[in-house]
Structures are given as structure tokens and as C-alpha cells.
Design goal:
This protein is mostly helical. It has 23 helices and four strands.
Amino acid sequence: MNYPLLLVIALFGPAIAVASPLDLNLPTIGDSAGRYLSPEEDRRLGEAFMRQLRRSLTFVDDSIVTDYLHSLGYQIVSNADAPTQRFDFFVVDDPTINAFAGPGGHIGVNTGLILATDSEHELAAVIAHEIAHVSQHHIARSLEMADRMSIPTIAAMLAAIVIASQAGQGGEAAIAAVAAGGTQMQIDFMRANEQEADRVGIQSLQRAGFDPRAMAGFFERLQKSARYDVGTLPEFLRSHPVTESRIADARNRAEQFPYRQREDSLAYHLARARLKVRALPSPAQGVRELKRALDSGSYRNAVAARYAYALALLANHDPQAARIEVARLLATDPERIPYLITQANIEMATNNTAAALAVYRQAQHLYPNNPAVTINEVQTLIQAKRSKEARDLLQGFMRDRSPDPSWYKLLAQAEGEVGNTAASREAVAEYLYLTGETRTAIYELRKALALSNLDFYTGSRIDARIKELEEDLAAEKERTKGGWGGQ
């Protein structure tokens, strides 16, 4: 079934909206004069959107891959028309070829799409297109909010559509639930928006030093592949058809720029290697396949192939063999973060905690407060029963950063192990809230508030947070009035 996309501007969005029995008449955000969302409205809607997504989709909890995607995304953002817009890039653990952009600058990319790219230029093209949808205010320009529509309601509708594009029948049920709620919503996705996103994305791509021809090349290659592989049509081609004229237009625009050759970064190949190993049916099979690829030269990048082999060896409980492979990599590139983290993981697998932490000290000296280094060091400290150090390191790292649920999960564990029950419950509550479980988060905070040894400051802070979450929960309940789910 084809679904008209709601509040999400998805990858290569539909040139023509296809009618469906589940058509929903969405009011749009802004007014008829074209008022955009205020930055605060955009931020709140984006946060609510992410909380809804985390309830149903599985995010890739790999700080190396996420850091790479952030780095690539901001290479393009710095060359795009979005000087004050904040962006957040995340990876969804889903083999389908798909990506999407939502409010608040949140851009999700499926593992399947990353692995389907033939070059970093193609991945950059996808991200540039999505960034252009955000920078050109396509969400705000396509939506107008009715007075009775709350941000949680809009976010829930938006999340239902993303889930639909990712989850087949599960997503279809989510849309049916939205329709049953009696809220009629619809977005008119104009062909002009998609062409504008192509045009602006191509410009950003070129400014960032990537091949602007990669955009047309990527979806043309996928379109041709779909013709031969009947029944394996990529998700975004199924939901968001790409026309021949649009491919030609993108190609013609790209040809206006001089050709500039640029090799794929090693970071791109290493991120793909981590996702490839993650997707293997079993570590043992992965070791065999990756060894054959290394021996036969069947790889795109020799260094990344060796790195993937080392990861598979470690996953297959052979740290000594993995150590040999990582040592080869470090010999020629001793400051590469993925190698250092894998080296530390090998040391932990051989019960050499001191050596693992020494690696992280070296990495922190080279890259202070780097997210991948810091989060992996925190995990190692907790594993080594040095939870106070883990707690202190994590608290300093999280200060002035946008919240991430996985960080709160680690913080809750560290606080609990040092005996700070109230702080542990607070961290659990924030984790639950960020993953869409507002009611359970309030329950955790009330249990924290009931502890007998709270000081006045801590009790006041917890009480204030309970009131904030209760207000959010009340707003979330607005969407249940028509009877379609909720907390």
C-alpha cells in the first residue's frame, strides 16, 4: 500500500501523492501567510517526534558509526543554507533502503541505505537532500497547524508515518490507529519541494567537496536495480517514486559544476565495516567470509576489510587473532579512533583492564571528550567496577550536550553502583522519557522522591521535574481522545 507522507519530509519524497484508503487530512503548521515554526516550536516538535520514534524503531547504539554520520552531516550543513539550524543525525537498525528528515533537524538513515551506497559521495547526496528539506523549511511550508493540534499529537502522527515506511504491517497498523483517532490530517507534497531539495542539495554537495553527480547517479542505480530484482524494490522507491525527468534534471544541474575527484574517506569505509559485521548471520560465518575476501582481494578498501575481519574475530571470541590484525592497522595509523577503541575492547576481552584504560587515556589525550572515546571509556570503567570514575566522566561529558537515552542508561547504572539511588532513578526516568515512556518515567521519579534520605535541593529538583513530565503527559493524552492508543 502507498501512503501519503505526513509531517515527515522523507528521502526522495513523492513527486505525486498517491491516494490511499487511509488518506489523512493533516492541518499544516504555520499560517496561510507562510509563517514558519518558531525555533522553540521546531525544537519541541522535534524532541516529541524522537521520543515517539524510539518507542518503535531500533537505533544503532554504535558511537563510532554515529560520530561518523554526524561528521559527514555537518560537513554538508556547514556548506548549506542553514546557518542557525541545529541538526541531529542518527542511524536506524533496519536493512531497508530508506532515510527521512523530521522537525528539529532530526535526520535518520537506515543501515540498509548506508550499506547500499557505492561511495561516500552517494551517502553525502542522500544527506544533502534531507538537509535541504530542513533548510528550505519544507515541513513548515507544507503544514499548517489547527489551533486544537498539540505538539505531541503532531509528533505522534509524524512518528506513525515513519514507522509505516519502516515496518510494513506494523506501520500500517500505526496509520490505521491514527485514522481511528478522528484527527483528519494531510500534507500536499509538491513536486516543487522535491526539485528544490535536489537543487539545494546538489549545491551543498558541491560546496562540501563531494561529487554533485552522485545524487542522480544513486537513485538511478537503485531504480535500474529494482527493474531486474522483482520484489526487492527499495522502500523509498516504493513510497516515493523517482521519475526519469527528475533524474535528468538532477543530472543536468550537477553538470553545471566542474568535476572534482575526491576519494572516499577511510571513516566512511570503517563505518560500513562495522555495520557489515553487525549484520552478519553469525561471527563464525563472518570470520570465514571476511577471510576469503581478504585473501582474494574482494573488497572496496583493503584497510576496512582487515578492520572488519578483526571485529569478526573479536565477536567470535578470538581476541588474540583480533589483536594481530588491529596491531597491523595501528602500525600505520596509530591515532585512528576505531582502531584504538577496538584495541581497548580486545584488552577487556582478555581481562586486561589496566591496558584497556591506558588505551583510553591515550585516546583522550589525542581527542579530549570525543563522544566515541568517552562513551566507550565509560562502559569500560563500569565493566571494571570503577563506577564513580565512570559517573564523573559521563556527567562532565553530558554537560551542555543534547540528551541521548543511551547516556542516561549508563549514568543510571553508574549512579546505582555507587549507591546514589535517587540519582540513579532520576537517570532511569530521563531514559524512559526520551524513549517515549513518560508515565513510567514519572513513576520512577515518584519512587525517587519517596526516598527517606533526600536533601531539600534534590527533592525540589525531582518534584519540579515530575510537574514538567506531568504537563507533557497531559498534552500527550490529548491525542487519545479519539481512542487511538497512547500512554
